[in-house]
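User: We ran a pulldown and think these components assemble together. Before we commit to crystallization trials, I'd like a predicted model of the whole complex to look at. Sequences follow.
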Amino acid sequence: MRKIMRVAAFATAGVAALALAGCGSAGTGAASDDLPDSIPETVDAAGETLTVWIMQDDYNDATLDAMKTEFTERTGAEADVQIQQWDGIGTKLSTALGTSTPPDIVDIGNTQVAGYAANGALMDVTKYKDDLAQGNTWLSGLEDPATVDGTLYGIPGFAGNRAVIYNKTMWAAAGVNAAPTTWDELTSALDKVKAANTASDFSALYLPGQHFYVGLQFVWDHGGEIATQNDDGSWTSTASDNIEALGEWQKFQDTYSVASADTVFTDSPEQEQIFADGKAGAIIATNGSMATILAANPELTDADLGSFALPSQSGKGTQPVMLGGSDWGIAAKSDNQLLALIWAQIATSDKIQKDHVFGDQGLMPNSVEVGEQILPDVPAVKSGYFEAALTSRATPASPGWTDVESAGILKDMFSTIASGAATPEEAAATYDQKAAAYLK
Amino acid sequence: MSTNTATKTRRRKLGRPSPIANTIALVFCILWAFPIYWMVKTAFTKRSDALNATPQFFPTDPTLDNFHTALFQAGFFENLRSSVIVVAGAVAFAIVAGLFASAALSRFRFSGRRTILVIILLIQMIPGGATLIPQYFVFNATGLLGTYFGLILAYVSATLPFSIWMMRSFFLALPRELEEAAQLDGASTWQVLTKILFPLVLPGVLATSVFTFMNAWNDYLIAYTFMKDQSMYTLPVWLASFSSPITGTDVSGQMAASVLFSLPVVVLFTILQRKLVTGMTGGAVKG
Amino acid sequence: MTQKTPKSARAFADRRLPALLLMTPGGILLTAVTLVPLAVMIWMAFTDYNRRSLFTGAYDMVGFDNFIGILTNEEFWWSFIRTILFTAALVIGSLLIGVAISHLMTRLGSKMRILVTIVLVFTWAMPNVAASLVWNWLFQPGYGVFNWILTQLRVFGDMTNTDWGSNTGLAFTSIWLLVVWQAVPFLAMTIYAAETQVSPEYKEAARIDGASERRIYFNVTLPFLQPTILLVTILSVIWDFNVFNQIWLVSHGGPDGTTATLGVFTYITAFVSFDLGTGAALALITALLLAGLTSVYIRHLIRSGEDDL
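Assistant: Here's a predicted model for the assembly, 1036 residues in total across the polymer chains.
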């Protein structure tokens, strides 16, 4: 029996060594040595497969089909597109990118890409930037987080932002017939809507306390930053320098939103459903939410909806909006990096951006030039979004920002302020202390 | 006469039924079943009616739309197939491996037996997700990632220690004389095992199978992380798709999905219920 | 006359080959799929493996730094205390209710008993992932029916907008309700099955001697149930100590990590902060703590059934 135990022990050690060897190897893709200096128009890769990971709801079937068709035309290879869930994606992506057979190219949110870029998970695509940009200037909110120390690791896919969606019909009934363009017009409009709808669960503008995207807008609007980069490259969390902005956030949320919204996020209860049920006169959401609203209440139509950018509290222009969106990242350990580059080039081409990303899905294209080109075609109901995007900012491009968002401490800060559980000073101090550990 | 005595004995065993007890039981049932009722009620409620400041205790306008969406627009059958494959495989492997091992650990004497028992017990104490990443790398190195077989092995590893423990306590309850008598009748070891010992611990086998089943049916993290192809995901991953930070939560759809997700398990438990309880207690009462 | 000697029983037990063969399938499985990753995890606990290490393979051996770091981390001890208290609350709660329901079931007519059994089985069978989602819906601020019912009862005032997930005490209450709701059935049914085995003669005798039903329960029934209760208690302790899904889905360990039991704390360390080395060390410490807590019973379990071998 003992002899067998000893043999088993050796076997165990052996397999363990094997496993460690598997995960310990840096595994520089041999492909990177053979890659050409620019992306070719066609390549003969018949029989090969490119593994593409897409986040749920980012690209729809029509867009993906268009990309796949062009990809196969140019390369003869097939693209295997896998849709991923949001819950647990951090773990899944990190482990998958760490193996020697990772997905070749992945669709990562622009607030997450910095973490992967800085940690060596993604391929350095700096020398292909011109080929990929195809003559356009990428939106800085998408490009900055993908750039570390001047090296480009990601390719902008599309952008999204948030604006106010309001119920035109309801507002007209309350006596407001035009979208507000200044802060004072906004508050007076909301006051009228509030006065005309007195149900206890009605919000003139339903704003969940955890909606940090909007909270950050207030910070930026007052000229502040949530984190700043020091000369030596490290980051400092600066929420405590923005007490006035945080106070304004609290006042706004408190005045126009029901108490039940104080500590929740936009998804539970679903704010689009609340709006569709007539319990909110306005919400702040992405333009994809319009489709959700119309689906949630078939009695509403496009004519009932409108959008506008949140006016600046300074009296001029609109509040800087947080530019969301996503970037493409090519796995550093992928064996199909050339094919992945071709896919990325297709995904960021003018044709795909104009016809599908914008045309089909209504998302914002990834570059300034294409953005200007499509401006005339923006449906009136969505004009608020594109207007808002002209003044956009990105979350700090620190690699630690991914962890800050995953840990939910930003949501905690805004919701404790909204609910009154902490004063802006206290909440900001708590947040800064925790964020410091992540931002380093 | 025999039936009368049997009923009377049973009555005496249990104590007289009392109306107070019946009333308390009724209240208990209403309270305890309420969450399930609410889940089912919401599943039949129209999406636009679900969020209501004054809850409706009976759906005013019941609809099957949510079930329709869940079944046909969300990939239910694909993921159901995966779940069934994985769960069946996990239960089969766990029974075979567990039955054999627990027989060895309880009816035989060999050095190192106590050490193995302690190791098996200690393994159960490790928090569930802790071995996820090391397992991920081992599976990746052996090419098991993204395969049903790999996922089955992962689930078996999670429940095998518990299965061995449970079945062992059943074996311990059997008297030694059984092997003795069988041997005297000329039975080989294998025959003793398969014809006498194994059949007697069937309730225990059933009980531990159910735990393995539940564990594999319910898991999200391992299935999501280990599987690469979305057509090979299991039902918990399917269930998660009803709520996303971008599109929010469609409560009635989510509740319909939850009903579909729970249904097979509930049906199984209902069929096996009495055997399960005997299975749980057989080892306990005598052990 | 055939001599039945204990020797023949021992001879069966002493057969080496069958034992070995029987252990093989389970042994191989356990070794390959559990023990090897476990060894890797133990090794990881002595390194500073993190997200960067995943991609570049670069890491350092840090000896006992992770362990020292954990043991000197205030958050860890808070999580530990929380886990002990919460586990105790769960076990005691489900046990008390389970024992009560079991006794209730002995006093029911058969139809009522079947109804109770059905309710218990459904509750027990429901996967805890689905149950957690239902709970979130029941307790949802603004539209959750539970809040509405509580408001109607006028005991706590207006609870309509209470967000249970964002207040430590409320979050624990809600999760406690969820876990106990699904834990009671197993306890109740197991104890009930044992309770039906209580010898009616003892009870009759006690009744004739003039003992009240209450005395009978405490002096006759409960002692008989002791081994069963002990078994299900230990099982409950091990299961409740490692409750994860319900806590994660209801409160994500918040607000501010104040509902993070050791399991959730480990998960957040390993998978959110991606500090895998520390996460591995945490897992080890948690396992050792649990083993320590249940050590007495473990020894008893191992020894039982060994006496006649």
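Confidence is low (pLDDT under 50) at residues 283-287 of chain B. That may be worth checking against your pulldown data before setting up trials.

User: Thanks, that helps.
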